[in-house]
């Protein structure tokens, strides 16, 4: 029998992101949780859930602040600084034909960038800091606005259910987190709109040779494949499908 599970913690002592990188969690100042989903889709389509999570976080943040943007494959930025990390993992269970998805979300809610290690001060931000910076934001937030992590958490879960319902291919399923046969085109369309990625100039490592030599390719993003991979047009005119690895935006 399928069941859904949500696990939240006040602090992660061994948080991690993509490629095994360490995720820094400040005690009682982050919303960090994982949602177990049973989407019944092949592994090749799992990347859609990273995009879905980014859309969910963006929609909730936009109730409080402006300048929220998504970055491929799974970061949420505000003014170019990282405010949220997303990690999608899968597990295989004998009773299920397709993999089970674990959607991990780590959102910097309280505190300020000064609270983070020196190597992160110029690359991260928090919801509290952005509210202070943008005190005349969407809800005319005042600098003494009090953030409740539990409220943000509940808003994220509610928006996740809303988005799953919106993006489902069919409308005759019950409204719960477990049945997630998603509409690829709709998700990609909204993700691209929120990322402002089309036309963006980037440098990237795209194959094993380049990774060994540390030689970057340069090109412009043209879109996404149905699986969520980047389509990048290089200077020579070659269209490359970028499946994994970091991209660096060139201003």
What this model shows, in words?
With 251 residues, the protein is an alpha+beta fold. 24% of the residues lie in helices and 26% in strands. About 7% of the residues have low confidence. It is globular, with a radius of gyration of 18 Å. Strand 4 and strand 5 form a beta hairpin.
Q: Which radius of gyration do the C-alpha atoms yield? A: 18 Å
Gap from first CA to last CA: 50 Å
Oligomer: single chain
Adjacency order of strands in the biggest sheet? 1-2-6-5-4-3
Helix count equals 5
Largest sheet: 6 strands, antiparallel
| Helical content class | 10-25%
> What is the general shape?
globular
- Proportion of beta-strand residues: 25-35%
- Work out the number of β strands: 11
Mean pLDDT: 83
Strand and helix order: EEHEEEEHHHEHEEEE
What structural class should be given to the helix and strand makeup? alpha+beta
Query: What low-confidence regions span 5 or more consecutive residues with pLDDT below 50?
Result: 137-143, 171-180
SSE order and pairing:
Elements: E1 5-9, E2 30-37, H1 47-61, E3 68-71, E4 75-78, E5 81-91, E6 100-108, H2 127-133, H3 149-167, H4 184-195, E7 201-204, H5 208-213, E8 217-224, E9 230-234, E10 239-242, E11 247-249
Antiparallel strand pairs: 1-2, 2-6, 3-4, 4-5, 5-6, 7-8, 7-11, 8-9, 9-10
């Amino acid at each position: 029998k399928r069941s859904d599970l949500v696990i939240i913690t006040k602090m992660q002592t061994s948080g991690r992101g993509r490629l095994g990188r360490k995720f820094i969690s400040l005690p009682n100042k982050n919303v960090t949780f994982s949602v177990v989903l049973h989407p019944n889709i092949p592994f090749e389509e799992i990347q859609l859930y990273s995009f879905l999570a980014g859309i969910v976080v963006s929609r909730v943040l936009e109730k409080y602040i402006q300048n929220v943007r998504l970055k491929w494959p799974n970061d949420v930025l505000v003014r170019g600084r990282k405010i949220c990390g997303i990690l999608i993992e899968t597990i295989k269970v004998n009773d299920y034909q397709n993999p089970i998805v674990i959607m991990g979300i780590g959102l910097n809610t309280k505190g300020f960038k000064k609270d983070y290690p020196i190597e992160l001060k110029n690359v991260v931000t928090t919801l509290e800091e952005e509210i202070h910076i943008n005190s005349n934001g969407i809800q005319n937030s005042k600098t003494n606005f009090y953030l409740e992590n539990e409220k943000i958490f509940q808003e994220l879960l509610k928006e996740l259910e809303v988005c799953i319902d919106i993006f489902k291919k069919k409308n005759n399923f019950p409204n719960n987190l477990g049945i997630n046969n998603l509409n690829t085109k709709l998700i990609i369309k909204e993700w691209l709109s929120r990322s402002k990625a089309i036309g963006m100039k980037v440098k990237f490592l795209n194959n094993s040779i380049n990774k060994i030599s540390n030689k970057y390719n340069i090109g412009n993003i043209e879109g996404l494949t149905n699986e969520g991979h980047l389509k990048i047009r290089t200077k020579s005119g070659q269209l490359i499908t970028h499946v994994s690895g970091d991209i660096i935006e060139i201003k």
